[in-house]
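Subgroup meeting minutes
Present: P.N., E.W., G.H.
Scribe: E.W.

1. P.N. recapped why we're keeping a running log of single-chain structure predictions: easier to compare across weeks, and new members can see raw inputs and outputs side by side.
2. G.H. added today's entry (323 aa).
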Amino acid sequence: MNVCVIGGSGFIGSHLIKSITAGHKVFNIDKQIPSNEVNENVRHFKVDIRNYEGLKNAFPSEIDFVILLAAEHRDDVSPTSLYYDVNVDGTHNVLKVMAEKGVEHIIFASSVSVYGLNKNNPDELSSTDPFNHYGKSKLQAEKVLRRWFDNDRNGKSLIIIRPTVTFGPGNKGNVYNLLKQIASGKFIMVGRGRNKKSMAYVENVAGFISHCLDKKLKGYHLFNYIDKPDLATKELVHHAEIALNKKIIPIKIPYFIGYAGGVMLDMISKLTKKKFPISAVRVKKFCATTQFDSVTIQTTGYKPRKTLAEGLEITIKSIVNNQ
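Output recorded in log:
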Protein backbone atom coordinates (compact mmCIF):
# COMPACT_ATOMS: atom_id res chain seq x y z
CA MET A 1 0.00 0.00 0.00
CA ASN A 2 1.22 3.53 -0.81
CA VAL A 3 0.99 5.78 2.26
CA CYS A 4 1.52 9.54 2.43
CA VAL A 5 2.48 10.72 5.92
CA ILE A 6 2.12 14.47 6.33
CA GLY A 7 4.25 15.56 9.26
CA GLY A 8 6.32 12.38 9.31
CA SER A 9 9.53 14.06 10.47
CA GLY A 10 8.07 14.90 13.88
CA PHE A 11 8.17 12.96 17.13
CA ILE A 12 5.29 10.56 16.49
CA GLY A 13 5.80 10.59 12.73
CA SER A 14 9.42 9.43 12.84
CA HIS A 15 8.44 6.45 15.00
CA LEU A 16 5.43 5.72 12.78
CA ILE A 17 7.45 5.68 9.56
CA LYS A 18 9.90 3.20 11.06
CA SER A 19 7.01 0.90 11.95
CA ILE A 20 5.24 0.93 8.56
CA THR A 21 8.08 0.87 6.00
CA ALA A 22 8.34 -2.92 6.13
CA GLY A 23 4.91 -3.37 4.57
CA HIS A 24 4.21 -0.12 2.74
CA LYS A 25 5.75 2.38 0.34
CA VAL A 26 5.93 5.61 2.34
CA PHE A 27 6.03 9.24 1.24
CA ASN A 28 6.78 11.86 3.90
CA ILE A 29 5.72 15.49 3.41
CA ASP A 30 7.04 17.82 6.10
CA LYS A 31 8.43 21.34 6.44
CA GLN A 32 11.59 19.66 7.75
CA ILE A 33 13.11 16.46 6.39
CA PRO A 34 15.66 14.13 8.04
CA SER A 35 19.22 14.95 7.00
CA ASN A 36 20.78 11.51 7.48
CA GLU A 37 18.01 8.95 7.05
CA VAL A 38 18.50 6.39 4.30
CA ASN A 39 15.57 4.09 3.61
CA GLU A 40 14.68 2.98 0.11
CA ASN A 41 11.02 2.60 1.09
CA VAL A 42 10.67 6.26 2.12
CA ARG A 43 10.72 9.39 -0.04
CA HIS A 44 10.80 12.82 1.60
CA PHE A 45 9.35 16.11 0.33
CA LYS A 46 10.02 19.42 2.07
CA VAL A 47 6.72 21.34 2.06
CA ASP A 48 4.83 23.43 4.63
CA ILE A 49 1.24 22.24 4.98
CA ARG A 50 0.07 25.86 4.64
CA ASN A 51 1.46 25.98 1.09
CA TYR A 52 -1.32 24.50 -1.03
CA GLU A 53 0.56 24.67 -4.35
CA GLY A 54 3.64 23.11 -2.82
CA LEU A 55 1.52 20.40 -1.22
CA LYS A 56 -0.21 19.64 -4.50
CA ASN A 57 3.07 19.44 -6.42
CA ALA A 58 4.73 17.21 -3.83
CA PHE A 59 1.76 14.89 -3.31
CA PRO A 60 2.54 11.57 -5.01
CA SER A 61 0.17 9.88 -7.40
CA GLU A 62 -1.51 6.56 -6.59
CA ILE A 63 -1.71 7.12 -2.83
CA ASP A 64 -3.99 4.71 -0.94
CA PHE A 65 -3.94 6.32 2.53
CA VAL A 66 -3.04 9.69 4.03
CA ILE A 67 -1.90 10.01 7.64
CA LEU A 68 -2.10 13.64 8.77
CA LEU A 69 0.17 14.34 11.74
CA ALA A 70 1.42 17.87 10.96
CA ALA A 71 0.33 20.37 13.63
CA GLU A 72 1.24 23.51 15.52
CA HIS A 73 1.15 22.32 19.11
CA ARG A 74 3.57 24.12 21.44
CA ASP A 75 2.17 26.05 24.42
CA ASP A 76 4.00 29.27 23.54
CA VAL A 77 3.10 29.76 19.86
CA SER A 78 2.86 33.39 18.80
CA PRO A 79 0.79 34.69 17.14
CA THR A 80 -1.99 32.31 18.16
CA SER A 81 -3.40 32.51 14.61
CA LEU A 82 -0.67 29.99 13.66
CA TYR A 83 -2.65 27.25 15.37
CA TYR A 84 -5.52 27.83 12.95
CA ASP A 85 -3.33 28.49 9.91
CA VAL A 86 -1.59 25.13 10.32
CA ASN A 87 -4.12 22.90 12.05
CA VAL A 88 -7.31 24.05 10.31
CA ASP A 89 -6.32 25.67 7.01
CA GLY A 90 -3.66 23.01 6.55
CA THR A 91 -6.33 20.32 6.88
CA HIS A 92 -8.40 22.10 4.22
CA ASN A 93 -5.36 22.03 1.92
CA VAL A 94 -4.80 18.31 2.47
CA LEU A 95 -8.43 17.45 1.73
CA LYS A 96 -8.41 19.60 -1.39
CA VAL A 97 -5.32 17.83 -2.72
CA MET A 98 -6.80 14.44 -1.80
CA ALA A 99 -9.91 15.26 -3.82
CA GLU A 100 -7.78 16.20 -6.82
CA LYS A 101 -5.72 13.02 -6.52
CA GLY A 102 -8.70 10.74 -5.88
CA VAL A 103 -7.67 9.69 -2.35
CA GLU A 104 -10.54 8.80 0.01
CA HIS A 105 -8.86 7.40 3.12
CA ILE A 106 -7.28 9.43 5.91
CA ILE A 107 -6.06 8.96 9.48
CA PHE A 108 -5.96 12.21 11.45
CA ALA A 109 -3.99 12.74 14.66
CA SER A 110 -6.08 15.03 16.85
CA SER A 111 -5.70 15.42 20.63
CA VAL A 112 -7.52 14.81 23.92
CA SER A 113 -7.11 18.57 24.47
CA VAL A 114 -10.46 18.92 22.68
CA TYR A 115 -12.13 17.76 25.93
CA GLY A 116 -10.66 20.53 28.11
CA LEU A 117 -9.13 20.45 31.60
CA ASN A 118 -10.36 18.83 34.82
CA LYS A 119 -13.05 16.75 33.14
CA ASN A 120 -14.39 13.50 34.55
CA ASN A 121 -12.41 10.89 32.63
CA PRO A 122 -13.96 11.68 29.20
CA ASP A 123 -14.15 9.03 26.48
CA GLU A 124 -15.12 9.29 22.82
CA LEU A 125 -18.80 9.72 23.74
CA SER A 126 -18.10 12.75 25.96
CA SER A 127 -18.71 16.37 24.98
CA THR A 128 -15.84 18.60 23.87
CA ASP A 129 -14.78 21.80 25.64
CA PRO A 130 -11.23 22.86 24.64
CA PHE A 131 -9.63 25.51 26.85
CA ASN A 132 -6.70 26.64 24.68
CA HIS A 133 -6.09 27.55 21.03
CA TYR A 134 -4.40 24.23 20.30
CA GLY A 135 -7.44 22.26 21.44
CA LYS A 136 -9.84 24.65 19.70
CA SER A 137 -7.94 24.42 16.42
CA LYS A 138 -7.79 20.62 16.60
CA LEU A 139 -11.53 20.45 17.19
CA GLN A 140 -12.14 22.76 14.23
CA ALA A 141 -9.95 20.51 12.07
CA GLU A 142 -11.98 17.47 13.18
CA LYS A 143 -15.18 19.26 12.10
CA VAL A 144 -13.64 20.04 8.71
CA LEU A 145 -12.87 16.34 8.28
CA ARG A 146 -16.33 15.26 9.41
CA ARG A 147 -17.96 17.57 6.87
CA TRP A 148 -15.71 16.11 4.18
CA PHE A 149 -16.70 12.58 5.21
CA ASP A 150 -20.42 13.26 5.65
CA ASN A 151 -20.67 15.01 2.29
CA ASP A 152 -20.20 11.68 0.51
CA ARG A 153 -19.52 8.65 2.71
CA ASN A 154 -19.47 6.12 -0.12
CA GLY A 155 -16.11 4.32 -0.09
CA LYS A 156 -14.44 6.79 2.28
CA SER A 157 -12.70 6.17 5.57
CA LEU A 158 -11.96 8.73 8.27
CA ILE A 159 -10.09 7.62 11.38
CA ILE A 160 -9.58 10.29 14.06
CA ILE A 161 -7.15 9.41 16.85
CA ARG A 162 -6.97 11.62 19.95
CA PRO A 163 -3.75 10.73 21.79
CA THR A 164 -3.20 11.96 25.31
CA VAL A 165 0.12 13.67 26.11
CA THR A 166 2.77 11.55 24.41
CA PHE A 167 6.30 10.99 25.68
CA GLY A 168 9.44 9.06 24.83
CA PRO A 169 13.19 9.41 24.27
CA GLY A 170 14.19 12.45 22.23
CA ASN A 171 11.02 14.44 22.80
CA LYS A 172 11.45 17.80 24.57
CA GLY A 173 7.80 18.35 25.49
CA ASN A 174 6.15 18.89 28.87
CA VAL A 175 6.43 15.28 30.03
CA TYR A 176 10.11 15.20 29.07
CA ASN A 177 10.76 18.38 31.06
CA LEU A 178 8.87 16.97 34.03
CA LEU A 179 10.75 13.66 33.96
CA LYS A 180 14.06 15.47 33.50
CA GLN A 181 13.40 17.59 36.58
CA ILE A 182 12.38 14.54 38.61
CA ALA A 183 15.44 12.57 37.49
CA SER A 184 17.76 15.47 38.34
CA GLY A 185 16.68 15.37 41.98
CA LYS A 186 16.00 19.12 41.85
CA PHE A 187 12.30 18.76 41.28
CA ILE A 188 9.82 21.40 42.43
CA MET A 189 6.36 19.90 42.95
CA VAL A 190 3.67 22.54 42.59
CA GLY A 191 0.66 21.53 44.67
CA ARG A 192 0.25 18.18 46.41
CA GLY A 193 1.12 15.97 43.46
CA ARG A 194 -2.11 14.00 43.72
CA ASN A 195 -3.62 15.06 40.41
CA LYS A 196 -3.58 12.13 37.99
CA LYS A 197 -2.59 12.32 34.35
CA SER A 198 -3.19 10.07 31.38
CA MET A 199 -0.09 9.52 29.25
CA ALA A 200 0.96 7.57 26.19
CA TYR A 201 4.31 6.13 25.15
CA VAL A 202 5.30 7.17 21.64
CA GLU A 203 5.98 3.64 20.33
CA ASN A 204 2.48 2.62 21.39
CA VAL A 205 0.82 5.60 19.70
CA ALA A 206 2.76 4.97 16.49
CA GLY A 207 1.93 1.28 16.78
CA PHE A 208 -1.78 1.99 17.07
CA ILE A 209 -1.77 4.24 13.99
CA SER A 210 0.05 1.48 12.12
CA HIS A 211 -2.50 -1.03 13.44
CA CYS A 212 -5.40 1.07 12.11
CA LEU A 213 -3.66 1.29 8.74
CA ASP A 214 -3.16 -2.46 8.52
CA LYS A 215 -6.76 -3.17 9.57
CA LYS A 216 -7.95 -1.06 6.60
CA LEU A 217 -10.86 0.27 8.63
CA LYS A 218 -13.70 1.63 6.52
CA GLY A 219 -16.18 4.33 7.46
CA TYR A 220 -15.81 6.73 10.40
CA HIS A 221 -13.93 5.84 13.57
CA LEU A 222 -12.94 7.90 16.62
CA PHE A 223 -10.38 6.67 19.16
CA ASN A 224 -8.82 8.12 22.27
CA TYR A 225 -5.34 6.73 22.83
CA ILE A 226 -4.19 6.27 26.44
CA ASP A 227 -1.71 3.91 28.08
CA LYS A 228 -3.18 2.91 31.42
CA PRO A 229 -2.94 3.19 34.38
CA ASP A 230 -3.17 6.94 34.96
CA LEU A 231 -0.47 8.17 37.32
CA ALA A 232 -0.25 11.01 39.84
CA THR A 233 2.90 13.15 39.93
CA LYS A 234 3.88 11.43 43.18
CA GLU A 235 3.67 8.09 41.37
CA LEU A 236 5.86 9.41 38.54
CA VAL A 237 8.47 10.25 41.16
CA HIS A 238 8.22 6.66 42.43
CA HIS A 239 8.76 5.25 38.90
CA ALA A 240 11.81 7.49 38.52
CA GLU A 241 13.17 6.19 41.82
CA ILE A 242 12.82 2.60 40.58
CA ALA A 243 14.41 3.37 37.20
CA LEU A 244 17.34 5.25 38.74
CA ASN A 245 17.61 3.21 41.94
CA LYS A 246 17.76 6.30 44.13
CA LYS A 247 15.54 8.28 46.49
CA ILE A 248 14.08 11.52 45.11
CA ILE A 249 12.76 14.16 47.51
CA PRO A 250 11.01 17.00 45.67
CA ILE A 251 10.71 20.59 46.88
CA LYS A 252 7.01 21.33 47.43
CA ILE A 253 5.36 24.73 46.93
CA PRO A 254 1.65 25.70 47.04
CA TYR A 255 -0.23 26.02 43.77
CA PHE A 256 -0.97 29.74 44.13
CA ILE A 257 2.75 30.52 44.48
CA GLY A 258 3.64 28.41 41.43
CA TYR A 259 0.88 29.98 39.34
CA ALA A 260 1.86 33.51 40.40
CA GLY A 261 5.43 32.73 39.40
CA GLY A 262 4.21 31.56 35.99
CA VAL A 263 2.23 34.77 35.49
CA MET A 264 5.28 36.84 36.41
CA LEU A 265 7.48 34.95 33.94
CA ASP A 266 4.82 35.46 31.24
CA MET A 267 5.02 39.21 31.81
CA ILE A 268 8.82 39.19 31.68
CA SER A 269 8.68 37.07 28.53
CA LYS A 270 6.36 39.55 26.84
CA LEU A 271 8.68 42.43 27.68
CA THR A 272 11.98 40.74 26.84
CA LYS A 273 10.77 38.42 24.03
CA LYS A 274 12.55 35.61 25.87
CA LYS A 275 10.80 32.27 26.36
CA PHE A 276 10.92 30.43 29.69
CA PRO A 277 10.29 26.74 30.44
CA ILE A 278 7.72 27.78 33.07
CA SER A 279 4.54 29.70 32.26
CA ALA A 280 1.10 30.19 33.81
CA VAL A 281 -0.45 27.81 31.26
CA ARG A 282 2.12 25.11 31.98
CA VAL A 283 1.64 25.42 35.74
CA LYS A 284 -2.12 25.20 35.23
CA LYS A 285 -1.77 22.10 33.05
CA PHE A 286 0.77 20.55 35.42
CA CYS A 287 -1.60 20.82 38.38
CA ALA A 288 -4.76 19.89 36.51
CA THR A 289 -6.31 16.44 36.53
CA THR A 290 -6.13 15.24 32.93
CA GLN A 291 -7.52 11.73 32.81
CA PHE A 292 -9.11 10.18 29.77
CA ASP A 293 -10.60 6.86 28.80
CA SER A 294 -11.63 4.98 25.68
CA VAL A 295 -14.67 2.91 24.85
CA THR A 296 -13.68 2.06 21.27
CA ILE A 297 -10.01 1.10 21.12
CA GLN A 298 -10.65 -2.32 22.70
CA THR A 299 -12.70 -3.33 19.65
CA THR A 300 -9.64 -3.13 17.37
CA GLY A 301 -7.61 -5.86 19.06
CA TYR A 302 -4.54 -3.64 19.46
CA LYS A 303 -1.87 -4.70 21.97
CA PRO A 304 0.55 -1.92 23.08
CA ARG A 305 4.21 -2.62 22.38
CA LYS A 306 5.35 -1.46 25.83
CA THR A 307 3.68 -1.05 29.21
CA LEU A 308 3.50 2.47 30.59
CA ALA A 309 6.07 1.55 33.25
CA GLU A 310 8.46 0.23 30.58
CA GLY A 311 8.04 3.40 28.53
CA LEU A 312 8.76 5.57 31.55
CA GLU A 313 11.86 3.57 32.45
CA ILE A 314 13.22 3.77 28.88
CA THR A 315 12.58 7.51 28.74
CA ILE A 316 14.01 8.34 32.17
CA LYS A 317 17.18 6.34 31.50
CA SER A 318 17.62 8.04 28.11
CA ILE A 319 17.30 11.45 29.77
CA VAL A 320 19.97 10.61 32.34
CA ASN A 321 22.32 9.11 29.74
CA ASN A 322 22.07 12.22 27.54
CA GLN A 323 22.58 14.80 30.28
